[in-house]
Every structure is written in structure tokens, then in C-alpha cells.
Amino acid sequence: MAECRASGSGSSGDSLDKSITLPPDEIFRNLENAKRFAIDIGGSLTKLAYYSTVQHKVAKVRSFDYSGKDTEQDHEPPYEISVQEEVTARLHFVKFENTYIEACLDFIKDHLVNTETKVIQATGGGAYKFKDLIEEKLQLKVDKEDVMTCLIKGCNFVLKNIPHEAFVYQKDSDPEFRFQTNHPNIFPYLLVNIGSGVSIVKKFDELLQLASRGQHTNVDMLVQDIYGGAHETLGLSGNLIASSFGKSATADQEFSKEDMAKSLLHMISNDIGQLACLYARLHCLDRVYFGGFFIRGHPVTMRTITYSINFFSKGEVQALFLRHEGYLGAIGAFLKGAEQDNPNQYSWGENYAGSSGLMSSSPELCPTQRARSGTFDLLEMDRLERPLVNLPLLLDPSSYVPDTVDLTDDALARKYWLTCFEEALDGVVKRAVASQPGSVDAAERAEKFRQKYWNKLQTLRHQPFAYGTLTVRSLLDTREHCLNEFNFPDPYSKVKQKDNGVALKCFQRVVSALDALDWEERQLALVKGLLAGNVFDWGAKAVSDVLESDPQFGFEEAKKKLQERPWLVDSYGKWLQRLKGPPHKCALIFADNSGVDVILGVFPFVRELLSRGTEVILACNSGPALNDVTYNESLIVAERIAAMDPVIHSALREERLLLVQTGSSSPCLDLSRLDKGLAVLVRERGADLVVIEGMGRAVHTNYHAALCCESLKLAVIKNSWLAERLGGQLFSVIFKYEVPAE
Fold first, then answer.
1. CA distances from 694 to 593, 629, 717 (A)
2. Which pTM does this prediction carry?
3. Angle between helical axes of 493-515 and 631-642 (0-180°, round to 10)
4. Contact yes or no for 562/716 (Cβ under 8 A)
5. What local confidence, expressed as pLDDT, does residue 44 receive?
6. Which family does it belong to (predicted)?
7. Could you give the domains of the chain?
């Protein structure tokens, strides 16, 4: 977030440069590729939306042609890697005070290059007031859109695409925001937009600051002032307001501005809450979203509205607030103007690298952000290649929470993991530079990445709620976004290439050893192989230290690292009994790491299931994250294994083994945002077993995920702090086999 140094508008881009701490090109990012615009101008704030194309680098893998070669004798890698340019779509949203509108329009005009449109969609009261100015500055025709239609369209968009968009406000919690998991069906709901028209004072922020220091009980008449305490017959507590400003009508004294402001805010907020509650009850709704300039994250406002809704509805209606409520109109106006492109057919994801995040204006929680006036607030949304949906096998999608630990809530865990990610930063920078040995500016870009991610971590130390619920997953995803921002699409590409090559050479020996075992011994060996493979996680410091210091550390050495049975969580006996029964119809397996993990751990396990008559869907990440295997890498690996193994070969040919992408580029797994094609396949094949492997996918996320079919969650704990928290030690084993209740 960029804070203004001086107030007042200017007439050129130069004056904009002088008024803010961030360079304008870091606020209006990628403006030269902007294609379409929309603007929402309220009584106090301007919200600009524009769509642009973003060019960035991606790592591509391609299989070599091995025809006529003895690949077992080759020292060549199993595939080649190339870095290519790719163009994707991004939505940019910038929010600023109306004071700066002229300077901002000048800057935009000077930097417009590739816009495809001659029209700008506009909504809000300012669409009329500033129409001539916009048309003069941008040479775009203003097309005015209905305010309420835009707000609803915008609200639908953020609720569908941003998982932790809505939150409840809890007065005495630390932090005070409690984010809600998005319901798969966002309707029905009531949206209450409280804009600048509600505030009847010139300096609304000053009023709120006064109110935060005031005591309304000095001005308001309470129930206890009338009855001497609570009115138990009517169920009225003693501290309930009986009459706003009641004491000012009877007492001959001066009242402080602070107390008067607090009383006024309570009166307005209670009235709004009661009206909203009446409408909600009239239409049988239990969710009410509040937005507008009146809210803007102000604790006193949210606290009063929450109390009012709860009181008048007797707890049956919930007051919810939105992280991006200020952008609803701009988003809706943009969607109206882009209807021919059907933007709702895509899924979108927040780009943490280019978004400001939610900032508290509480004086106690964040003094540096107390003065909210004069700030530029940013939001970026990237269009995802494929639409994302729920996994059909979730028992109750509406109550599914991917993450095991909420770091927003757990201060001790939050402190540990933020420090952990800070300490790992040098290693990530080193790996990023090493992944691009031919680049002259790799070191410079890596330093920019370091600074950006470090700044994000410091923001999250002070404002853990900035991007919704803070989790290990969100910290990992933020790091990936920042790496992509500076064109490090796959820092582990060379590591994965080497690891896959080494593991492929061992595949036949491992499978032959398994085939020589009797049935029961083989089942345990297969599980131990899965677990040993999962040790090879370059994202875990305890492992990367070993791999870098001992190049000979391999599959057999990893097996020796594993905890002896009984494991920390050990359902193996129950799993073995299940295997003695009929085969599963279809298993969905979420793979984790490249190299030893997928080739020597997962594929032998897949091979055994296929031999039992079970079809297998093997799901891998769509994009790179750490050394996790990607879908494109898995295709090449499977092709190489099929050339060596008739079981895999025939299963691929007969489509009993299907390789699919998850739609994710994260080391963790959100089962509510998976590739639509994967979900369709799961339904069509009647999957009745889900296997989730890896610490990120099965421990940091989905450890408590309830499915409507059998599931295996297995991982090796490669973090000593986490192992201790779970009651184990480093390299403790999680083997969790679950059967849904009848």
C-alpha cells in the first residue's frame, strides 16, 4: 500500500509521482498492455479496474527421441527443459481518493499503448460528476452502468473466486477477523452497501478516530439507567442502549466530542443493522454482507453492526464483511463491459505478489495504517487456464476447510513459520539464481524477489489476516507468486530433471525386488516405498541439507530414516485387512515430489493397484512448485516407465491408468479448487479410494478432510517443530486410513 505524502490533485503524471511513496508504475502495473477499463467513482473514493495481458516465463519439458538408443546406458537426462514466454490475462484494481483522480487519469493517458476499446464502463455517483473529465483525459467514451447491478455482479465474482473473501468481526479476538470458508453455493444472500451518502460530516475518518476514543455510555441512556440494572422480564441486559443521546436531553452539562461521536456511530450502525435484519428475516436469509465507504475495515463500525444484527435476529442472521468490498462496483462494471468475453466461464485467483491485502485501521493493532485517507490500495486477479470446482468426493463441501492449522489464530505457530520462511529465503534466492545460469540479470531479479517476499512476511507479522486466513499453504503460495513475478517459473526444474533421470534407472530393480516378495510382505514394502519416496522433498530444510551434503543419499538410505512401526499415526493393519477384500473400482492418487517419490514410491504402488483390477487416476500439479512433479513431467515419466514395464504400458494403452492435472501450482492441496476435468473423470470412473501423499497435501492441508469414500493420507514429517507438535520426532510417519461412517 502506498501512502500519499501530500494532498491535492495535480494536472500531470509528475504531480502523481510527487504525491505517493511508490512509483506510479508500481501502482498502475502493466498499464501499457491494458485492453479494457471500468471505473467506479463514489463520493469519496475512485476504484479503477482494467484488464491486461501479462507476459511471463514458463518452464516447458519435452521428451527426447530415444528411438534406436539403449537408454539404460545413456547418461543423458530423461527430457529437455526450455524456458518460453507465455501470455496470460490479469485483472488490476486500484483504489484511491477522489482528490487524486485528475493526476491518476493523466498518468494513465500518458501510458496507454495497446487498449482495444474506445469505451470505459463507469458506475457510482461520480460517473456523472467526472464524466467530462474522464472523456477529456482518456479519450474514451463513458458508458454508465447501474450501481446496484454492478455491486451484485462484483460481490458474486469475489465470493466465487477468492476463498477467504468473507469474514465475521469478533470484538475481543486477536486478530479480530475470522474468515469464512466459501460455501459452494453462494446464494441466497443480502448485500447492504453503505456508501459515502451515509456519512454527513466532512471528515469521516476524523469522526471515526474520535469515536474510537469515546465512551457512548456517558451520552446514551442505558436500560440500567432506567431500571437500576437488567430488565429480566423482557430479557434486556443492563448495558443495552435504551435511548441514543438520552443523557444529553436531561443532563445540564457539556459532553466530549469523543463521546458524542461514539454515540452517533452506535445510533447509525444500530439503525442499519436493524433494517438489514428486517429485510433478511422478510426474505428468509441468514447471510448479510456489508460493504461501502462507511465500513472500510473500521472496528467500531463492524463491531456495532455485528452486535445489532445478532441482537435483532436473536443470532439467526450472520453479519459478514468482505476483504475487497471497496472493489465490488468496479468489478461489476468491468464484467458488464466484458460480457462478450464471458469472464465468468473462467476461474480467477488472487495474485498475492501484486495485491495490498486487508489492512486494519484499528489504532491498537496497526498504528502505521491508522490514517487510511490518502492511500492507494491494489488488487490483482489472474485468470486461471482451467475452471476450478469441488472434488465430488468431499463429504460436505460447505464445511470443508483445507488447512490444518490457522496461523491467524495460533500465535506460537505463526511466529515459528514466519521465522522459518524468513530463514529459508537465502536458500530460495540461491536456488532461483542457479536455475538460470545463462541469465545475466538472474541475481538482480532474485534480489528483487527476496525484498518483495521479505516485505510480505513483515506485513503478515503485523497483519496476519491481510490475505485471509494465514496458513502454511498461503505462505508457500505467496512465495511462488513472488518468484513468478520476477520470472523464476520453476527454480527446481534442473533438480527435478536430474532426480527423475536417476530414479528411472532404478525402477526395474525396485519392481523386481517387490515382485520377489510374498503378497503380505509386498504390501508393507510398497507402503514403506511410498513413505521413503516422500522423504525426497527439497522444500524441507532437514532433507535439502542431507541431499546437498550427501550426493549418495538414495532410496535405501531414505528407508532407514523412517520411524519404525508402530508409526506416529498407524492404520496400516486396517489397510492390510481391506486389501484382503475385493479391489477398489478406481483410485484417485495425488502425487507429491518428482524423482524417487513419484517413480520409486508412487508408480510401484499404482502398479499393484492395477494388478488388483483397480483403475487409477494419477493427479499432478498443473504448474511447478518446489520439486513437486508437474503433469507434463508425469507424462514423460509414465512414458519412460511404460517402455520398461508391461503392466504400466497396457494400463496406459487401455486407459485404466489416466494422468490428469489438478489445476493447482501449490505444494499444498485445496480440494475445493480442482480442475473441472479431474472432477468429471472422478465421477465418470466412480472413484472409491483417494490417496493423498506428502506433508503439504496430507498434513498441512487435508489432515482432517472428510471424504465420502475410503482415503489414505500418508506423509513423513520432515520438520522437527511440527513433529514435536504432533507428538513425534523428525521422520515420524503418518499413515492414516479412513473409512466413511455408514
1. 8, 12, 9
2. 0.89
3. 40
4. yes
5. 80
6. In the N-terminal section; belongs to the type II pantothenate kinase family.
7. 24-62+76-159+328-384 (3.30.420), 167-219+255-322 (3.30.420.40), 406-484 (1.20.1700.10), 492-533+564-738 (3.40.50.10880)
**How much is the pLDDT for 543?**
86
Phi then psi dihedrals of residue 510, to 5 deg:
-65, -45
d(CA 177, CA 727): 30
Cβ atoms of 687 and 617 closer than 8 Å:
yes
3-state secondary structure 259-270: HHHHHHHHHHHH
Query: How far, in Å, CA of 442 to CA of 199, rounded?
Result: 51
Q: How far is the C-alpha of 269 from the C-alpha of 276, rounded, in Å?
A: 10
Do residues 563 and 733 make contact, with C-beta atoms less than 8 angstroms apart?
A: yes
* Contact residues for 223 (Cβ-Cβ < 8 A; gap 6+): 230, 231, 236, 237, 238, 239, 240, 241, 242
Side-chain-facing half-sphere of 258: CA atoms under 13 Å: 7
**Which grid cell sits at 603?**
508408480
β-pair type (674-675, 657-661):
unpaired
Asked whether the beta carbons of 297 and 147 are under 8 A apart, the reply is: no
- Residue ranges for the chain with pLDDT beneath 50: 1-21, 67-73, 198-202, 360-374
Of 211, 213, 300, which Cα lies nearest the Cα of 264?
211
